[in-house]
Design goal:
The structure is a homodimer of 329-residue chains. The first copy, chain A, has 329 residues and is α/β, with parallel strands linked by helices. Chain A has 10 helices and 12 strands. Chain A has 2 domains: 131 residues, 2-Layer Sandwich (Nucleotidyltransferase, domain 5), CATH 3.30.420; 175 residues, Nucleotidyltransferase, domain 5 (2-Layer Sandwich). Helices cover 39% and strands 19% of the residues of chain A. A 5-stranded mixed β-sheet of chain A has the order 3-2-1-4-7. In chain A, strand 11, helix 9 and strand 12 form a beta-alpha-beta unit. Chain A is globular.
Amino acid sequence: MSTVNAAPRGGIDLGGTKIQAVVVDAAQAVLGQARQPTPTTGGPEDVAAAMASAMAEAASHAGVETDALAGVGVGSPGDVDSARGTVSSARNLPGWEGEFGLGAALQEALGTRAYLGNDVQVATDAEAVLGAGRPYRSLLGVFWGTGVGGGIVLDGRPWTGRGTAGEIGHVVVRIGGERCGCGRLGCMEAYAGRASMERRARERHAAGEHTDLFKIMEERGRTRLMSGVWSRALKRGDRLATALIDDAIEALGAGVASTQNVLDVEAVIIGGGLGVRLGQSYADRILQAMLPHLFDDAHPPAMHVAALGDLGGAIGAALLAQAAPERPV
Amino acid sequence: MSTVNAAPRGGIDLGGTKIQAVVVDAAQAVLGQARQPTPTTGGPEDVAAAMASAMAEAASHAGVETDALAGVGVGSPGDVDSARGTVSSARNLPGWEGEFGLGAALQEALGTRAYLGNDVQVATDAEAVLGAGRPYRSLLGVFWGTGVGGGIVLDGRPWTGRGTAGEIGHVVVRIGGERCGCGRLGCMEAYAGRASMERRARERHAAGEHTDLFKIMEERGRTRLMSGVWSRALKRGDRLATALIDDAIEALGAGVASTQNVLDVEAVIIGGGLGVRLGQSYADRILQAMLPHLFDDAHPPAMHVAALGDLGGAIGAALLAQAAPERPV
């Protein structure tokens, strides 16, 4: 009974490092986009203001006012309550331990309805509907960035469990192993998450190991080891960077293979900052590292890099605003 | 358009150690049952003959002829092709590396149609429909016995992936860890499967560690460390048995928690020879061992022992013969 609104829609990918906003048309073509750094101080209100500002800039590039958008979707970290429009426990964002009414704040600032979803699931859905996952009915999205997130599509539909399915970063790869950012021991993310890799790089550098990682970081005007810094160091053959990436791939091999042994999906899509930056040759290395642990190693899943790249999260978020009128939020 | 056949149905659980057969009525009540040891020599024909013999005995106890059964369902290990009625790569069964037409062999011997399914998924479906899983829409069945098998129900339906989903025994819990019966390193089953536990017990006993495990085994006229042997040794406080069970529970804690971090189901049902024998207090210990690894540790899944006990696999197999007329096999 609902009519499809053909007006442009907005999508915002809220990351720990950056806020990416897009405006798309009914065919999901990107009409405008903008990016802003995620505030590192202040609180949820400041983050919401930066999101609204990025969205306004993307809309301006698309030649529309934000209140003319059919809606704005948001892919958010933390615990997202889509029905209530709230986000809590977003630990990578400043002062966001408690609950914040992100939906209401954005609606107020943008003059159009906001729809919230989980960042990783939204990016997975985007790949399933528009990207590398289109040929498949079942897939696992692996988002390899600051942490390691996972999104699941089974039989053509997202599987979110009771709300926290797909937490593949916290699949255990080594009982009693390295401490993860989450506080637990031996999680895949403790070896493969960029935040963990940076922590270990700093420790080993401080202990006297040579590396160009921090020199490259400074040359690029960064204060953290972003994906581009790792990529450059690897191309230069930096020994510490290579060793830490090898550890990460070993952990991804075990953790993604374990997940595949449980789910037996048709395809794995590798996204996230590191996944997209390092590309297909590293996706292939992850598959090679999976093989010794895959139960059905005669039929490994197809392995692709996320086709929507950096914009996938934001484009997927915009899908929320499209689908929303036809399903309960 | 199909009519439900109200005649009794047969169900056979084909295990590496024993063959359990049941005859059930339309309400799934057990009318007769029989058990035979699984042949350890010969080939698939001999196993099929033992299965037919067990089924005939169960039917005799139920007061029916096997050709009067509406059908016979089979829960089988190995690679099961339900449509073709074949089983291959059943490595725990004698001479069963290749493909064997088990369905046709049983139909010939029993005079009624045979329906094949995966042993672990069949037992999980039985718990979901008739057992401890009835209150839940999503659950994970953990079958802790010779190996560790897993069955998945999501949104009320079995999830089997491309055919090998739920292989939780081969979730990696320690990269580079102990060698598993499957040949891989660090699988959960390498620590928690009864076959692996027995191998380690024999090694440590041979190396001089004291244990009553093998004395109890001999007293019971066994040649392997069956679940009852472990249970008795644990009750006596046997130090080696306790240490190996502690290792098993640590591995189950990590591996089942990893699986829950992926699936986020409502409940975990612990079945299998050891799971059923050791009961709820050990299921609770597994949950305690999961907590340090559970991402959503504020909402752990409900944890139950399989309610259908030892007969669950066979009763679940009989469900195949009920459902079969209404779905493609």
